[in-house]
Amino acid sequence: ALRQYQQALNLQPDHTGALEACLRIREQSREWVEAEELLSRLEQVRGDSYSSHRAYLLAEMACQSRDGGDTDAAVEHARRALQLDPSCAPARLVEIGVLLERRDFAGAEVSVREYWRYSAEHFPLLVSLMVEQKDFYDAHGHALLESLWRESGDSELFLAWLEQVVRRQGVDEGRKMCGALAYQPDSLRSSLRLAALTGSEDDPHSRFARRWRKQAKNYACEACGVEVVEMRWQCPQCHAWGSMHPKREEKI
Asked: Is the pLDDT of residue 216 over 50?
């Protein structure tokens, strides 16, 4: 397919359809450098800026570098992405992960606050990373999460935090946390999640909630409406970047 599209581009270098098709193929193949080059060509042909799209490609390069052990390159890609789009959550996740790995807790806290400022709806994706790094969590993370919860009352933030507490310390600790922070669910979805996490084994409602939790669609694309279980930065159906948002309520 790439050869066929390249033949079309040899005849007509500004053929937007061929450029878009090649870009899609490179993205699906996780060839991010080549994808960015094609994006630059599209920008030139159309006279438009795709800075947010490029930010997500750079974030994917950051993930690739991090997974390959090159944390310096990972941070550089992530910071370039954030310069283009401060709300590019995957880039911020890479940056925070590297800072925590390097035990730069002060820098990590600054970056966590920036994440909350620009990408609050995706902040729950960061919570497990904060809790896993015990030294950071004990010194900074717990107080930071409590502060953000108290000022925002965001159920998704609280439930993501509660999930990590239950997973690591058990249901009793989760129940204590709910009591200490006076958490009350504000929707059917949050009520089900709470029951799945802290309900008793012999409670029918809690058993139903746990079954629901295993198959619940947690994110929806604002562009095409497709719903998915796990977060994807690129929609699997319409291929838009940054269009997947957490669901706040269940359809009845």
From this structure: yes
